[in-house]
Amino acid sequence: MVRDVQNRMTERSDDRWILSVGIDIGTSTTKMIVSRLRLMRTSSVLSLPRYDIVERELLYESPIYSTPLKSADEVDADGIWQILAREYEHAAVRPEELKSGAVIITGETANKRNAKRILHLLAERSGDFVVATAGADLEGLLAGKGAGAEERSLRIRGAVANIDIGGGTANAAIFQRGKPIGTVTFHVGGRLIQVDTGGAITEVSPSIRRWLNASGYRLEPGQRVSFEVLQQICSAMSRNMLDYLAGYASADQEPVRALLLGEPLSPMPPIEEWMVSGGIGRLMEEAKPNGLADTAVHGDIGPLLAHTIKELSSRYAIRLVKPDQTVRATVIGAGMQSTEISGATVHLDESALPIRNLPVQKLEVTPHLLAHTEHLAQAVSQTMRTAAGLFDAEASPPFALAISGLRPLTYASLQRLSETIYESFIAYFPSSGVIVVVCENDIAKALGQALAKRAGAGPKLVCIDQIKVEHGDYIDLGQPVAGSMIPVVVKTLAFHNRVEVTDV
Amino acid sequence: MKLTAALFGNTYSFKDLKEVMAKANEEKSGDQLAGIAAADAKERMAAKLVLSDLTLADIRNHPLIPPETDEVSRVIEEAVNEKIYAEIRNWTVAELREHLLRQDTHNEEIRRISRGLTSEMVAAVTKLMSNLDLVQAAAKIEVTTHCNITIGQRGVLAGRAQPNHPTDSIRGMKASLFEALSYGIGDAVLGINPVIDSAESVKAMLIATKEEMEKWRIPTQNCVLAHIKTQMRAIRQGAPADLVFQSLAGTQDGNTAFGIDVKLLDEADDMIRREGTGTGPNLWYFETGQGSELSSEAHHGVDQVTLESRCYGLAKKYKPFIVNTVVGFIGPEYLYDSKQVIRAGLEDHFMGKLQQVPMGVDVCYTNHMKADQNDMDNLAVLLAAAGVNYIIGVPMADDCMLNYQSTSYHDIATLRETMRLRPAPAFEKWLEMMGIMENGRLTPIAGDPSIFM
Amino acid sequence: MNRTIPLDQLVDKVMAELQKKLPAALQNAASQPAANVTESRMPSETGSADDFGPPISHVPNAKWAEGVEELIASTPARIGVWRSGTRPLTREMLKFRCDHAAAIDSVYGTVSQPLLDEFGLFTVDTYFENIDNYLKRPDMGRIIRDDGVERIRRSCRMKPQVQIVVSDGLSANAVDANLRDVYPSLLDSLSAHGLSLGTPFFVRGGRVAVMDHIGDIIEPEVLVLLIGERPGLVSSRSMSAYMCYRPRKGTVESDRTVISNIHPRGTPSLEAGAHIGSVLKAMLEQKTSGVNLDI
After folding, report:
1. Where does the chain bind adenosylcob(III)alamin (chain B) (predicted)?
2. How far apart are CA B436 and CA C90, in angstroms?
């Protein structure tokens, strides 16, 4: 699907487009997309400039490749690069044109060795600002966005869940009124149990063994099973997962507990609609398998699992809806939905950009802190000390200081705040050459100006705003667009550990 | 043409028709700012006396702004039906006033006469009418129009839902729109003033309003009040617009200041007929307001009532679905206080109706004017009595984007109940279907915007 | 150039994410700032929100109560207000009237003299005479009185790069509420951009186009006028910054660049002040302002 990629530069000059790539390297398949994001001024000419991403257009979708492997769990990085090089050519983009985007390494491929190779490769050969991400929470969120669950949740009252089910895991992300409210991952996938058309088990993934034991099944490679037994297993696995999401089963008890990977869901409102994306989502659209021969066409239980979920899910008081995307949900989420844009009145030292994988440390500046100098100094110092303990103090920058609150702010308190931040940063990070500050409210230019007054020829400053980040997030900061703002990718990871500070 | 009058032992003589017209106006700060107002109350009355004896032919024969140099004058001239004009050319302005007020002069007669009148004649007679004259004469005139539904029928008071938002947020706009609909407001138009005058922004809001119209099957029409060129760009990009909008001035120079001329309006007219989504035949929405020509120094020494009347003469050419004067928006240098705003509101409504223009009024004021919400209550009641086609509905009368106060969703609902007026019939049927209205009264669920979520 | 953290370190971090090993210290830190939250409030804000509290739904038996709250949160418009018969509820009506009261009072207010003294601003008058006349005769607010012209000639540095002028305009309140923040932030942004400032002063009874008369007298390269806006109900203390390259008699409106709606709940005054320096810099570079300025 090539859509006029060449024409992208002929738009009106007040349109600013950035090209964004998404790459999904999974256990069994690899795919990429190229999209463009349109930035438009969304503030009136009488206001401070503010731009938003107003349009996300999919320009190119690659075919779905089998992930090239060197061994069972080692990705062939050169093979990946060959695919990408060919696809960049098909899409008619040069890597240096790519201003944003994300590569996501998913499923069982997401081990350290693979991540290292792929990151090396992309850092050397790919675009300026293609960021690497991983983690089941993020994967689930991106898939939920790509599948359309986030958008759908704005149209109905209740919560909408997307369950992205691939070969090894099922990542569920739940959205309500456009906001993510939870993610959870299950050991549910099409390739967890591999079987041939004769019913001989060829492989059982270690990750599903605990659940199989807890559920009373004994499966070993070489063993022969009937279609009915596979049906029972798929049915039990699907029911455990769906019961849990529907709130009928608790994570405290086996076998549900054995099916969960990582943290359970935090308490949340009932789900009104759900959808299934990923490879299993696509198989749900195909014909239902009627025996071992139909089931094992790919050598695994995928088709049977897909249809079991399809049939079971219709028995709940939750509507099953079709996702916008199935197998490409994650890559589309990564390529089109991962980037935000900072405010357009910011303070930037361009030579410090881009910055990748910067951990976030948060400071909530309350009116009380602004009114009490000594308390402010304590809070800032505490934040810096924590950051110094967690992150590499030599790094430039070591972390991003995320400041929320600050409204309303007077000139005098701004000066005090910047003095405190600067002094404390220098004390804890004396050899760091870059300070990064991310403000929630529109104040970055003034704060940057105040910090710059103090920094002089000292550390470089990147002070941006109108980006909401939390403890545990990592951010990537791209190079300036039109000189005045930068693309930002916020990688939300600590979903379960997030501390919500309610605004007053 | 006799331009002198003897009064209180003095002889008042006026240089020309322009001076008589200006000085015959009720007191307006805008005419004073332009330096053309009567010096005192006696001179004002002398001018009214002179004006009352002038004939309609006198007025036509002495153009205030020559058609040779002004295209608005040409549009007005070209619209005159010569046969009907010939029948009434020798009437004095006083006789025209009395004719309009006679018990046996009904809608049909007025509609016929109006075809022989110029905008200047209409302005002239207005200057001789009291507020109650303006109410009574206007109440006789029924101007109905149809875009997707018909409004303007006798006994109907429609409302424009004006769900503006300070940053053009679609969600915020819809929130205010839902509130409007839940009070039974929105039959005149779902009309949004955008902050950002860009085709994308206009398109996004047209699509968003259309979406709700289709989702809830709302019988009404949508419009985004950007500059006409921006709307045309949006429509070319596929935006669904039932109506197109433009602000009008009463002189060619005034329209130049708005960035428009007759040629551009003709072009837009052609476009909305070909590419608009409205059923028609009435596909335009115009806004006007006394003082705009002076503010752009395009008034040619003509008073603001006459210039306002000329706006309606221009509007008529395009057979608009709705027109409203934004009466108190412009500020105290044109309309100083509530007395002047109330007068102007009644004048504008009457002058529009007499020219067969489907008049609504934005009953409004700004905070540097000597007026408050009580004055708006008063004017709204007067206009409802005068048969105004529609007024503006803003949440609690406070427009959080344009920073002025108008009339509220509550006010329109109240006027309907107290003055025994109804929403447009097609819209009322829909309100009944939604359970918001029964027998012309709001039901217990009315006022709950979450009906539309 | 140390632009990114070393790759190995990056990989370690990504892997740490993968394994969801969020350091325990981070979690402890997360709750730290919240512990310092107290009830302390900032000095009174604009609008009646402080007195009436944040808007909440008054719709009884709403079809979807949370939905109404979501709608209210999405707009500053007064919605979800409910009714008695077809009329507004009393408190909502009074809240509206309070906001209107604040708005009209700010038109008739005067700027605090100590504030002007604090920034060393001397005062000149236009021909406005009194507020009523000011409202009726905008032309008179565009001309400085002769004694004021004399004072300007005596006190001001002529032909400066940047001239700052402050005026009450339609809201003296706006100057009182914003000057203390916007003005020093603006001075900082001038020095950050290496721009030099003339002698600032205050104009009582000024209209926007008074810039042209001042431009004729002082002949600055660029002029910034910080002036009180027509008060609205959302804020009676809103200020605008009008900027113009070489303002002179006959300058048209489209030659002026404006940042409006500067007040504590609108355009943040500190950020506006910081941004003005960049705008002036662009004007000086491009030798133009208003619609022709590319920023």
Report:
1. 194, 246, 295, 401
2. 23
Q: What is the pLDDT of residue A253?
A: 87
Q: Measured between alpha carbons, how far is B328 from C273 in angstroms, rounded to an integer?
A: 33
Could you read off the pLDDT of A292-349 as tens digits, one per residue?
A: 999 999 999 999 999 999 999 989 999 999 999 999 999 999 888 888 899 999 999 9
- On whether B295 is known to bind a ligand per the annotation, the reply is yes
Domains belonging to chain A, first-starting first, are: 5-133 (3.30.420.40), 139-326 (3.30.420), 342-491 (3.50.30)
Burial of A373 (0-12, 13-18, 19+ CB in 10 A): middle
> Cβ distance A304 to A311 under 8 Å?
no
The ipTM is 0.95
Closest CA to C47 of C103, C116, C4, C86: C103
CB contact under 8 A, B196 and A54: no
CA A492 to CA A142: how far, in whole Å?
10
Q: Which residues of C touch B414 (CB under 8 A)?
A: 85-87
**Parallel/antiparallel/unpaired status of strands B404-405 and B398-399:** antiparallel
- Which H or E run contains C223? strand C222-228
Q: What is the pLDDT of residues C146-201, one digit of tens each?
A: 999 999 999 999 999 999 999 999 999 999 999 999 999 999 999 999 999 999 99
SS3 (DSSP) at B200: helix
pLDDT at A110: 67
Q: Is the minimum CB–CB distance between B263 and chain C shorter than 8 Å?
A: no
Cβ-Cβ contacts under 8 Å for B220 (sequence gap 6 or more): B148, B149, B186, B187, B188, B189, B190, B213, B427
pLDDT at C44 over 80: no
Chain C residues lying within 8 Å of B178, measured CB to CB: 71, 79
**Domains of chain B with CATH codes:** 145-452 (3.20.20.70)
- pLDDT tens figures, A395-429: 889 999 999 988 779 999 999 999 999 999 999 99
Cβ distance of B450 and C233 shorter than 8 Å: no
SS3 B451: helix
Pairing of strands A69-71, A74-75: antiparallel
Interface membership of B139 toward C (CB under 8 Å): no
- At B14, the amino acid letter reads F
Q: Would you give the DSSP letter of residue B39? A: S
Mutate to test the interface with A, among C271, C278, C285 (most CBs of A within 10 A): C271
Chain A, 56 to 115: residues with Cβ < 8 Å from chain C are: 110-112, 115
User: Do B56 and B117 touch, CB atoms closer than 8 A?
Assistant: yes
β-pairing verdict for A271-277 and A260-261: unpaired
Assigned CATH for C113-292: 3.40.50.11240
Closest CA to C227 of C163, C144, C169, C290: C169
**Cα B220 from Cα B205, distance rounded (Å):** 15
Partners of residue A127 on adjacent β-strands: none
Q: Which element (helix H / strand E) includes A271? A: strand A271-277
- In this predicted structure, what is the pLDDT of residue A131? 63
The answer to whether B51 touches B93, Cβ cutoff 8 Å, is yes
SS3 assignment, position A402:
strand
**Residue B449 to residue C68, Cβ atoms within 8 A:** yes
- Where along chain C do its domains lie? 113-292
DSSP A41-69: E-S-TTS---EEEEEEEEEEEPPPEEPPE
Structure tokens at A157: 């009252």
Pairs across A and C, CB distance < 8 A: 196
Query: What residues form DSSP beta bridges with A164?
Result: A171, A277
Q: Do the chains contact at C232 and B172, CB–CB below 8 Å? A: no
- Asked if C11 and A115 come within 8 Å (Cβ–Cβ), the reply is yes
pTM of the model: 0.87
Instruction: Give the Cα-Cα-Cα angle A31, A35, A41 (nearest 5 degrees).
Output: 155
Cα torsion B412, B415, B421, B422 to 10°: value is: 20
